[in-house]
Amino acid sequence: MVRKYNVVVVGLGIIGSASLWRLSHSSSNVLGIDAGAPINLSGSSHGASRIFRQAYWEGEAYLPLLSLSGDLWRELENTCDRRLIVETGGLFVGPVASGVVRQSVETARRGNIKHKVLSDTEITRSFPAFQVQAGMEAVYEAGAFTIAADDSKCHMLNVAVRQGAELRFGASVVSIVRSSKGLTLRLSDGVLIHANRVVLATGLGMSTDLISDLSGLIQPKSVPVYWFKPKLNNDRNFARGFPAFLYQLPDGRLLYGTPHIGSEESGIKIGFHNHQQSIFEPEIHRQAVEESCIDEVSACVEQVFPGLNSTPYAHRKCIYTMSCDGSFIVGESVHFPGVFYASACSGHGFKFATGLGDTLAKAALSGVLDESVAIFSAKRFIESSPLYL
Prior knowledge:
single chain, alpha+beta, FAD/NAD(P)-binding domain, nine-stranded mixed beta sheet, 20 strands, 23% helix, flavin adenine dinucleotide binding
């Protein structure tokens, strides 16, 4: 018997899980499908922690979606008996004229985001774990927080199931076609599923030929991330009060990090946001992080955090699904009306998942994508040459 659903969500990373969570509030006839497991180590959404910040150096255009997302993260936590949000604050450090400092301040002012600008001496006095060079400044956003990533995604799925949604793991969608039933999805095991509308949130899978809308517009990258432990008698500086952070080095390399928030990952998580990126190749991605990369990040950690052991105790590779301009791509398929998608979160999309999920859910139920995400349309690339052809 072929089942028909109101909406099918394909891909249950954080964007797909958030979409299913929001859909389940309005419709019980929804299905979520993922080729992997609930915690999928081959995607971009796994891990213990992510940063949420609104003094967004990437630009004020993100503010409306950030505001919605922040409200929905707190709504999600209010339905959970576990802590999903840790109020760590966010510290964004860089040279005085750097983009991280200047543009974070600009966005905070335009968005009326509570913040403080700290001098180099004020940084070290308030946050003694940091060693900063003369001439550095920081923006401190007290309202920034750290998200318990895996726990949040699992809770979204749990809530969706309690509200009537169905889940199917271990099966991939191999084709989508239009039919008299609406949209027909064929799964890897041969099962056919009919849907009125589809939400597509397959991350790096968006670069395949399931739909061709994003062909040449996205490029998966393999990016290492590391964990460091405090030196003996230095735990205090990295415990309560240690913030989520961005740290732009004088040469432009941008470190990010999150504190230990009581999850399965101990120590301080640190990585480069705009550096140490290589084209994603499955076989190479499964290999250990290169020693040269470990040496490079260790040298930076020794410089910025003298209280940490500079050799990481753990490391692994994650995936950034990058767009040509480093922003998101959200839209409705030109070739398959009724298929709504979000991809190419470009390494900074997790914090937006609740807002994007809500937007995609409303589009799938109404058939109309809200104009608030028009700035993320693939149409912006029509007059430019994509980087990833």
